[in-house]
Amino acid sequence: MTQQEAPSQRTTIKRVPQRGDYQRDTIYQILDEGLVCQVGFVADGQPVVIPTAYGRVDDTLYIHGSPASRMLKTLLQGIDICVTVTLIDGLVLARSAFHHSMNYRSVVVFGTATLVQDAEQKLVALKAFTEHVIPGRWPEVRQPSRNELAGTLVLSLPLVEASAKLRTGGPLDDAADYELQVWAGEIPLKLTAAVPITDSRSPRQIEIPAYASNYIRHSNLARFSQYL
Fold first, then answer.
1. Separation between Cα atoms, residue 47 and residue 30, nearest integer Å
2. Is 24 left (phi over 0), alpha (psi -120 to 50) or beta?
3. Kindly report the CA angle at 137 between 120 and 217, in degrees rounded to 5?
4. pLDDT one-digit tens code per residue, 166-225
5. Which of 62, 125, 182, 185 could form a disulfide with 95 if both were Cys (CB 3.0 to 4.6 A apart)?
C-alpha cells in the first residue's frame, strides 16, 4: 500500500493530505510507541470518548477491561467505533500567532470490535498489553489466574481501516513575516522516565530490573522528516 492509497473513504486524509500515510509499518510504529488510545463511540445516543491502554499483535489491536465497563459492554453490541492514538513530538513557534503548530504523529482506526473468547488468544492479548507498556516484564510476573481471566474482557479490532497523519519540521510562515524580529523554531518534546521507586514491601535484595531502570519509549521519528 502506498502513501497515497487510503483503505476506505472515511480513512482518507482530507485536511493537508500530504501529511497522510497509509502504510502498515508507519501505522504500527506509531501504535507501538504510544501508551494510551482514545476510544470513541455512541452510547445511549450520546458521543463518548474513553482513554484506555491497548496492545497490538500483528494486524489486530486489543483493548481490555472489566466486564462491568460501560465502554466494553457498549462495544460488545457490534457498533462502529473510532480509536485514535497521538504522539506529540514538539511545539512549533512561528513568527505569527496564526501559524503556530505542533509536530505530531497520529493514527485513526475505524471498525467494529469483537469479543475474544478463546483462552489462548486472550492470554496472547494480555501479554501484548504488558509488553507494550513494559517490554521484558511478562516473563517475570505471575500469569493471570483462571478467575482473573474470567474477570477480564478482551476485545479485538482489526487494523483494516487505519490511517496515519504526521507533521515534522519548523514553522511555515508567510513570506513577509520572515523579516519580523521574532524568535521562531521548535521546542522538541519527548516522554522520559524518572528513577524507578521500589515498592516499600519489596525485599531489599531484589534489584531494579534493567527494563525499569533504563525504561525508554523507542521513537522512529527520524524516518518521518518528510512530513511538513
1. 25
2. alpha
3. 110
4. 999 999 999 999 999 999 999 999 999 999 999 999 998 899 999 999 999 888 777 776
5. 182
